[in-house]
Specification:
four-stranded antiparallel beta sheet, eight-stranded antiparallel beta sheet, globular, mainly beta
Length: about 200
Amino acid sequence: AFTITDQWGFLAGTNGFGDLEKAQRFTFADTASSYTIPEVWVFFSDARVVDDGDVTVNIYESTMDGAPASLVGTSIGIPASGVDIDPTAVVATIFTFDTPPTVTTPQFFASVDLSDLYAKNDTVGILTTDDNCGDGADSWELFGDGTTWTAIDASNSWQLEANYMIFAITEFDDNTTSVEETYDSDNAKSSQQPYTAELRAKR
C-alpha cells in the first residue's frame, strides 16, 4: 500500500483522512442471471495491532460505471491480528460469509470495511498495483464522512490509475463472459512507497 507524505497511514488502508472503505469494482458483461460471492481474497501489506478491531468486506451492487450502491452482504469479521502478512511472500486473507450474497447486476464492488479499526487504534494497508498499471475508475473509497464515495483517479482523491489487490470469488448458474482483473505481483506496491498527500487536501 502507498504510504502518505505528511500524514499517517496508507492510501489503501486506514489513514489520517479517516477513509472508511476501499472498494474494487468487478464487471460481468454478459450474465443473464444472478450470481453469488462465497469468498473475497484481500492482499494486505501491513497490520499494526493495538486493540484488535475487526475488518470486514461489504458487497455492493452498482449501476454501470457508478458508485457502490445497494449493500447485499457483509462478511464475517476478521480481527486485525488475523490479517495474513508474510514478509517474504504475497498472501491472501480470505473473507467468507454466513450466507454468500447474491448479486443481480453486471457490476458489483467488493469493499474492505476499515471503520472499526479507528476506535481501536489499529492500522492496516492493502496492496495495490503500480500507478498506471490499473484503472483508477474501478477503485473507489468511502470518505470519513460515511457518505461520499469517489474513485481514486478523481480530482478530489489520489489521481491514481491503480487497483486494489482485492479479488472476489464468484459462482454462476450459467455461462458468463467476464472482464478479468489481472495483476502482476511484481508490481504490487509495498508499504514503503511514499505518495504525496497534497492532491488529497483538495477535498
